[in-house]
C-alpha cells in the first residue's frame, strides 16, 4: 500500500466522469487499500478514485471517527438508487483546499455497489454517511461540492484560491471541519 497524491481543484482530472470497473481483481483490491490509507492520512471520511487521478468508479468511506477502520467501506461501481428527505451539511473536500460551505443533500440514501468479494450489496445511509456517499459519487460523475454552490460563492472561492496560490499560502490544509 502506498499513499496516493490527492488532486486539488482546479485539476482537470476532477471534472472527468469515472468509468465502471469491469474486473474485480487483486489490483483493484490493492488500489482500494491505498485509497483507504490515503483517506485516513489526509484525514477524511471518504475518497473517490477520481480524486487520486484514477478514472474508475471506486470509493472508500468511513464515517466512524471513534473506530477508524472498523466500518470502512470499499465500494466498486456504487450508485444511489433511492434518496429521500433533505439535510443541510457543512462540507469540505480533500480536493478543495481551505474552503467549506453548507450544501443541501438528501438526508437518506440507498446505495448499491459491488464488494471485493464480487457480491452486490445495498447500504441504507443517513446523515453524515448519506452526505459522504452523495459527495463521493458526485466525484465519480466529475462534480465537486462547490459545483452545488451559487455562482457567486464559487467565484469568491476561485478568487481566494488564486490569492493563496499567488502568496504561496495554499498548503492543502483544510479547516478543522469534517473533510469528505
Count of helical stretches: 3
Hey, roughly how much beta strand do the residues contain?
A: 25-35%
CATH class: Alpha Beta
Class of secondary structure makeup? alpha+beta
Shape: globular
| Percent helix range | 25-40%
Report on the structure:
With 180 residues, this protein is α+β, with helices and mostly antiparallel strands. It has a single domain, classed as Alpha-Beta Complex (Peptide Deformylase), CATH 3.90.45. It has three helices and seven strands. It has a five-stranded antiparallel beta sheet with strand order 1-2-3-6-7. A two-stranded antiparallel sheet has the order 4-5. The model is unreliable at 173-178 (pLDDT under 50).
Summary?
This protein has helices at residues 26-41, 127-140, 151-167, and strands at residues 46-48, 58-61, 73-84, 87-93, 96-105, 108-114, 120-126. The chain is of the alpha+beta class.
